[in-house]
Amino acid sequence: MLNTELTLQQKRERTLKIVNNVFNLNVIPKVVFELIKALDNPRTNAMELNKLVSHDQALITKILTVANSPMYGLQRKVTTIDFAILVIGFKELKNIVAAISISDALRNKTDRYLSQKDFLLHSYLVGSAAKKISKDIGMQNSGEAFICGFLHDIGLSIIHRYMHSNFVKIVELMQNEKLSLREAELEVNGITHEEIGATLLEKWNFPNEIVEPVRYHHTPSQSQSSPTMSAIINLADFMTEALKIGELYLDKGLSLDELTLSKFKFEKELDAEKFSNNYKDLFWEQMEFVRFLN
What we know:
Layout (H helix, E strand, L loop, with lengths): L7 H17 L5 H11 L5 H8 L3 H11 L13 H8 L1 H17 L9 H21 L5 H10 L2 H9 L1 H13 L4 H8 L4 H11 L4 H8 L11 H17 L14 H6 L5 H8 L3 H11 L4
Helix pairs in contact: 1-12, 2-3, 2-6, 4-5, 4-6, 5-6, 6-8, 7-8, 7-14, 7-17, 8-13, 9-10, 9-12, 10-11, 12-13, 13-14
């Protein structure tokens, strides 16, 4: 009798073929690519950008929602794209537009295995916490921290939408065999959601400063070029679990990487839980804004 069991490498190759097909589907709206191209051009002005964004009212609403969120702490309400550009900056706005559009494009229908509302809340809170942490420790690229956090679990969206039967198998292995998410993913897909997400972002020409933390948000110690940002995302992800605000059930039992503990001078995870309490108000403040992103 022939052995039909696939090896880990075969499962990995099969999964990556599906990811490549997702890339070829052109699921990202044309307006997003036009916006990114315009934002990359230093000659682009607010009027030209406004003209591009005006074709997508939902996108305008989401950009303004982010600009008015507690992350920026503005005293004055942002009501126009022109002002949003001044508040957020071209580079950060480009990343926010791309992140929100990708998130929308990859979103699947809610089912018993993944609530899209819970997933968006988790993504947004991790991004918000990452931005605040990076700012608090004096990092210059706090805007990138939000994008890394917002997109950190994008691989789960890809699996849920384009490999749904595999997503179901992963959840069932976690529930019935008590496997961790990582163990179940490797068993089913031969690859983790971190690598799936990073691979697709790479194909969509996201910069390495964003791709790397997405790839290593559970294992920052393996990151070569962005260990600190990867550690920030690892901590922000952990904080949702510690505070029980916007946590994902798939992350149950999530632990901090040794590098994260070292970077933040935590002797044990209990120290990280105490640290998380400093951000509790931020989490509650951000929650009311997430409903506008749905």
